[in-house]
Specification:
alpha+beta, Triger factor/SurA peptide-binding fold, four-stranded antiparallel sheet, three-stranded antiparallel sheet, 7 strands, globular
Length: 319
């Protein structure tokens, strides 16, 4: 898969949207396609569950409406990209879906059974997962065909970007980290999520109290790598989930922090080691910088293109 399409790549450890529930009402019409409230709620289910834990009912409703509007905007964009695929007669074959599934398994060290267990924890079966993979791959193809030609990164631009990266704080640090991951199923109730969050807090307290972090990870973590003490390996900024990165880079070696909420669930993290590194030479980091800057430009162009599609489309909001 092209690096410039990473922005819409299927996240390997992010819960997919659950299958649609009973249709309750239409919240938008996009050309000849409807968007239902249940479809919208499925898309942002993890965020809605977090909002339900807020004590203030007024703030809770304000946040719910804010996230519903933002989610609807994203969903309308997805519908428009899909419709553009129909116009361009772009399709995804079964072998492409299977190849993606094999890459997912290989990247996580999973066999078919481990993939099944993970999907079950997210309230999905393989058929639903394959359908979502197909939809994601289709969107990637449509985006590549529609705006791929707009993305250009020149040598001078790369060198300027390299110099700007050198001046960023902590850009030359590498962290070795570990985590204890507790997944939150897609269909979890607010009470169920609160219980998982409480368990994460208890594990954090135990780690901060001096218990062996690797031992806790082997016993409680449910993500791949638990048997290795929850090791996430060594990495610089811009590699791992931003929520985890933000916490772990602020820790000192040996410290534990969190819990961190990601699309997967709750993570208790530990900074195993922290090393200051000399900046890599330009030629050594050129390929990575090319990918990073291309992704950044893609995000900008994608936003512009989606707005172009919206201006040309019939869109009625009923939220």
């Amino acid at each position: 898969m092209s690096r410039m399409l990473k922005i819409l790549a299927l996240a390997l450890l992010v819960p997919m949207t659950a299958p649609a529930r009973v249709i309750d009402r239409v919240v938008a019409v996009v050309n000849d396609e409807v968007v239902t409230l249940s479809e919208l709620e499925d898309l942002i289910a993890p965020i809605l569950r977090q909002i339900e834990t807020l004590d203030d009912p007024v703030l809770r409703e304000q946040q719910r409406q804010k996230q519903l509007r933002a989610g609807l905007d994203d969903l309308i964009g997805q519908k428009l990209v899909g419709q553009e695929g129909v116009v361009r007669r772009i399709s995804v074959q079964g072998d492409e879906v299977q190849a993606h599934l094999e890459r997912v398994k290989a990247s996580q060290g999973w066999d078919d059974e481990k993939l099944r267990i993970y999907l079950t924890s997210q309230g999905l079966n393989l058929a639903e997962f394959r359908k979502q993979v197909r939809e994601q791959l289709l969107r990637q193809k449509v985006i590549r065909a529609s705006i791929g030609g707009r993305i250009r990164v020149g040598e001078a631009e790369l060198r300027d970007y390299y110099r700007s990266k050198l001046t960023q704080a902590n850009a030359d640090f590498e962290v070795e980290a570990a985590h204890i991951a507790l997944p939150v199923p897609t269909k979890a109730t607010p009470a169920e999520e609160a219980a998982i969050r409480q368990q994460a807090n208890e594990l954090l307290a135990r780690a901060q109290g001096g218990e062996d972090f690797a031992g806790l990870a082997r016993q409680y973590s449910q993500a791949p790598g638990a048997e290795n003490g929850g090791s996430l390996g060594a990495f610089r900024r811009g590699v791992i989930d931003p929520a985890i990165e933000k916490v772990v880079f602020d820790l000192e070696a040996g410290q534990a922090g969190g819990p961190v909420r990601t699309g997967y669930g709750y993570h208790v993290v530990q900074c195993v080691a922290k090393r200051k590194l000399p900046p890599p030479p330009f030629e050594e980091s050129k390929a990575a910088l090319q990918n990073e800057l291309t992704d950044k430009k893609l995000q900008e162009e994608l936003g512009k293109w989606i707005e172009e599609l919206k201006r040309k489309a019939f869109i009625e909001i009923r939220l």
